[in-house]
Write the structure tokens for this entry.
Amino acid sequence: MEDKLYENNDLLDFSQEDEETLLNRYLTFNIGEEIYGFEIMYVTEIIGIQKITKVPNISNYIKGIINLRGIIYPVIEIRNRFGIEAVPYTERTCIVLVRSRNMGVGMIVDNVSEVMRIDVDKIFPQPQTYKGSKSKYIKSIAKLGTEVKILLDLEKLLFEDLNQNIELN
């Protein structure tokens, strides 16, 4: 398997004048049978699973750190973050590198589905349900025909308590 599956430029081919179209573009990925997504503007790269160095005394959902081209990234195991049972990695398991708040973070997902445009009129607030550990990261729900995509609040997912656990650049 190649180290680098995709670079942001391979996922989307936008000219600079089309930057506003990024607002309606989402990277979708699977965790088990569920499809999740977040705004593509956060994605810098998608890579295959790397050697992850464990870091002691941090939250269990932080798998460790990777060194990619001389830059250190903390890596979050999304299954652990959601309280979902871990499964062995496959050839489709990958790390989505995102950048927010001037910090790069890797997120391990079961597989990346696609980059898709989701119009604003297809996005709805999350339903009023029990606000458990999974639902607190939901920003909204996209209804696309008969399919539902769970759109995540990436800021909450990454930073709710990450900064108190590990600070790396």
